[in-house]
Amino acid sequence: MVDLKKIQTLDQLVPQQPAKVKQPDLGTGPSFKETLSNVGGMKPQNMIQGNPGLAKAAEGVKFSNHAIERMKTRGISYSPEDITKLQDAISRAAAKGSKDSLVLMNDSALIVSVKNNTVVTVMDKNALKENVFTNIDSTVVI
């Protein structure tokens, strides 16, 4: 320990040798790609597999991972006709110059990034109560 009363120059406060930093061992364990492929859960493309009508309708509209999680936890699903209506609603919002829109459909609400053609989140009628929607510039009711 340095006695502060005996310090005469700034050089006495600077350590003579830098402390050694332990480097992590990066050579072991699975790669990021392997880890990502092993992550469980439903992938967006799996939601429309086996349903050609839904696959065709969903070509334009995408669902974020967050929206898929909300759909699973809240038990929300959409028919191919619903996806077609959603795509039409997004197209109408885009025609009006919207960037982020609230789409009210059936008993659910969807927050959609119009410019990315992506459903950001989904709520059922129970989650809608006393909720404030921010950062949206339009609402489409279908």
Summarize the structure.
The chain is of the alpha/beta class and 142 residues long. It has five helices and five strands, in the order ααβααβββαβ. A five-stranded mixed β-sheet has the order 1-4-3-2-5.
Question: Would you write up a description of this structure?
Answer:
- This protein is α/β, with parallel strands linked by helices.
- Helix content is 30%, strand content 18%.
- It has a 5-stranded mixed beta sheet.
- A hairpin with a 2-residue loop joins strand 2 and strand 3.
- The longest helix is centred in the middle third of the chain and has 16 residues.
Described by the principal axes of the CA atoms, the overall outline is elongated
In terms of DSSP E residues, the strand content is: 15-25%
Ends distance:
74 Å
Largest sheet: 5 strands, mixed
Mean pLDDT: 78
Poorly predicted residue ranges = 47-58
Radius of gyration using CA atoms only: 26 Å
Number of strands: 5
Helices and strands, in order, run as HHEHHEEEHE
Main traits of this protein?
elongated, alpha/beta, 142 residues, 5-stranded mixed β-sheet
Outline the fold blueprint.
Elements: H1 32-38, H2 52-57, E1 62-63, H3 65-74, H4 80-95, E2 100-105, E3 108-113, E4 118-124, H5 125-128, E5 138-141
Parallel strand pairs: 1-4, 2-5
Antiparallel strand pairs: 2-3, 3-4
